[in-house]
């Protein structure tokens, strides 16, 4: 019998139902830091997908997964596949199997709280840690049910915060001892594993890929969008200036999103009237660790009332590349014809 597409199932569950849980944590990773996140999802019977799945991410790159169909850890990150630490992966498999059994008990119990006797329901747990370049550690542990927050761990007090009245009941069961266990994991094993994974995939995780940047607007009355894509690592700064001064009003900074090739994209939206754009000088500034200097995009007017971005500095680089290619082609033709220059 053909197994369901585990990758598709896991990604759809993570995207659709863990978004609420992860927003406070997934986008706060700073420069010179690394993060390890685990996404646990249990699904009540009745969906053509694995009933239980765990996905592990390092710096937002998927490293592997466990699901109830395979019953073992499957490494998906190319940067992890060459390591030979079988003992470690066997340990992760056993931990995943333990939580699979745990979820089998939790889901029916929570369904009972809501007087639910059927249908598709999900129980999510996400836990992860960060290690910054200065040695600072951060961590979190959070539960959710059907895409809504349920319990959140307060690391400073080793206690749980319930998101609603029904969650208070399970909060009493998630006792202080378990909270301390989570805290101990986040401050020790999680950091140790993160360092191990970074060492496994250093060439991938610490590579630097510069962003492709653009500035566009649908029409003269639409917001101006400053877009950066294809960059790695994840941390990037996109800001606006008005007449050379930092601008924060009427600016909406979107979340950093992953691309399919393991790079990232981000956009910042400036909402101002056509009159304001005519009257003042606006620029978008992109800063990334792969760039020797910041990229500046000037908002300028073109025929038809549409605003375009002019890449200051990057244009020079493109022109140099074109010139070099032209010279190379010309020299090859000269060599083939037997002439010298």
TrEMBL record:
One GO cellular component, as annotated: extracellular space
Gene3D superfamilies documented for this protein: Immunoglobulins, MHC class I-like antigen recognition-like
Segments traversing the membrane: 306-331
Domain of life: Eukaryota
Record-stated family: Belongs to the MHC class I family.
PANTHER family cross-referenced by the UniProt entry: MHC CLASS I ANTIGEN TRANSCRIPT VARIANT 1-RELATED, MHC CLASS I-RELATED
BP GO terms, sorted: immune response
Residues annotated as domain Ig-like: 211-296
This protein's UniProt keywords: Glycoprotein, Membrane, Transmembrane, Transmembrane helix
Coiled-coil positions: none
Keyword Acyltransferase belongs to the record: no
Organism encoding this protein: Pygocentrus nattereri
Organism phylogeny: Eukaryota, Metazoa, Chordata, Craniata, Vertebrata
Keyword Transmembrane: yes
Protein name as annotated: Ig-like domain-containing protein
């Amino acid at each position: 019998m053909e197994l369901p597409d585990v990758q598709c199932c896991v990604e759809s569950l993570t995207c659709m139902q863990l978004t609420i849980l992860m927003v406070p944590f997934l986008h706060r990773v700073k420069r010179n830091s690394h993060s390890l996140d685990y996404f646990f999802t249990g699904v009540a019977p009745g969906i053509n997908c694995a009933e239980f799945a765990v996905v592990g991410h390092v710096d937002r790159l998927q490293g592997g997964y466990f699901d109830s169909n395979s019953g073992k850890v499957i490494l998906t990150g190319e940067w992890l596949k060459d390591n030979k630490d079988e003992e470690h992966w066997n340990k992760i498999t056993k931990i995943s199997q333990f939580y699979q059994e745990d979820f089998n008990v939790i889901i029916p119990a929570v369904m009972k709280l809501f007087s639910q006797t059927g249908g598709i329901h999900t129980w999510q747990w996400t836990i992860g840690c960060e290690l910054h370049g200065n040695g600072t550690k951060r961590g979190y542990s959070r539960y959710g049910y059907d895409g809504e927050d349920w319990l959140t761990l307060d690391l400073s007090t080793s206690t749980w915060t319930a998101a609603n009245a029904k969650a208070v009941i399970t909060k009493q069961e998630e006792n202080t001892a378990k909270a301390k266990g989570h805290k101990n994991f986040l401050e020790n094993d999680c950091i140790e594993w993160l360092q191990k994974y970074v060492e496994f995939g250093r060439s991938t995780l610490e590579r630097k890929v510069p962003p492709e940047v653009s500035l566009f607007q649908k029409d003269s009355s639409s917001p101006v969008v400053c877009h950066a894509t294809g960059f790695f690592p994840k941390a990037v700064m996109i800001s606006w200036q008005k007449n050379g001064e930092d601008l924060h009003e009427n600016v909406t900074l979107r979340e950093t999103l992953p691309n399919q090739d393991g790079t990232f994209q981000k956009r910042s939206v400036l909402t101002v009237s056509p009159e304001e754009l005519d009257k003042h000088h606006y620029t978008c500034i992109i800063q990334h660790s792969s760039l020797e200097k910041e990229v500046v995009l000037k908002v300028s007017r073109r025929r038809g009332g549409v605003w375009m971005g002019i890449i200051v500095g990057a244009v020079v680089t493109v022109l140099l590349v074109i010139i070099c290619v032209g010279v190379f082609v010309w020299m090859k033709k000269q060599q083939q014809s037997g002439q010298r220059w």
